[in-house]
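Title: Comparing notes on inverse folding

I've been comparing how different people in this forum approach sequence design from structure. To keep things fair, I'm posting one structure and asking everyone to reply with a full sequence. Here's the target:
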């Protein structure tokens, strides 16, 4: 029997997009999955929309209070029973072969962690607005310090090999901290240079707000990695430069 995949999703006020996300999971060619959705006290009808789907693999947990995306992901991770951990935010999208191809690639390369290409799309039309982000580099702790190539929508890891990794709830760059902690334990993550997911670039996304983002990234190194001030500033500068390159290659 195929190994179980645990899909980890935080949801908050996602009614406009959540059904498209749900359909992308229900369409997966790899069917042995559980979907752990932790709703962070949505104020719209997100919860009602999720509950419309009568599939026992979809496991909704409505949190007692709002605690942020990192906390919501952690609540799902606590309940996850699958060998493989995959992440999908409530406004993003997977192509039908995403799970099948990612797991097959992990097995072929005997990998603990893999990531793939993803499209960067308009939040309403889901049409590409930037060139696809390409998974073209083996990821290590060292190079992940300078730029975060791993996105939740396009990354998967094997708990049998590395255990579970949780998100720091006191960081606004919680995904980068989590990936760094994971890459401390394993030598590398492997790139699958194929587009299998869509990332919705929302105007109100926390990750795209410029105010305080440099400070938050500096704290990744200073507070969570324990680096000196000079070393933290060095990696923050590298991250900022690489981030500019990552989002400046707009289609002509």
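Reply #1:
Here's my take.
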């Amino acid at each position: 029997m195929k190994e179980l995949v645990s899909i980890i999703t935080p949801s908050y006020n996602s009614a406009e997009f959540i059904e498209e996300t749900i359909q992308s999971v229900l369409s997966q060619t790899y069917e042995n999955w559980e979907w752990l959705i932790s709703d962070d006290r949505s104020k719209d009808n997100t919860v009602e929309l999720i509950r419309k789907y009568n599939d026992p693999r979809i496991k909704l947990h409505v949190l007692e209070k709002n605690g942020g995306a990192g906390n919501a992901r952690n609540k799902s991770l606590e309940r996850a029973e699958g060998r493989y951990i995959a992440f999908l935010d409530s406004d993003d999208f997977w192509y039908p072969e995403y799970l099948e191809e990612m797991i097959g690639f992990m097995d072929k390369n005997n990998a603990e962690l893999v990531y793939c290409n993803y499209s960067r799309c308009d939040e309403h039309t889901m049409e590409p607005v930037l060139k696809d982000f390409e998974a073209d580099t083996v990821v290590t702790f060292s190079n992940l310090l300078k730029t975060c190539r791993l996105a939740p929508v396009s990354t998967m890891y094997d708990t049998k090999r590395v255990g579970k990794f949780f998100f720091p709830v006191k960081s606004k760059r919680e995904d980068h901290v989590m990936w760094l902690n994971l890459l401390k334990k394993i030598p590398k993550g492997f790139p699958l240079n194929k587009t299998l997911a869509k990332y919705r670039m929302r105007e109100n996304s926390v990750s795209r707000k410029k105010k305080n983002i440099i400070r938050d990234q500096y704290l990744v190194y200073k507070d969570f990695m324990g680096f000196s001030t000079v070393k933290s500033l060095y990696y923050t500068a590298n991250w900022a430069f690489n981030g500019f390159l990552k989002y400046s290659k707009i289609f002509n």
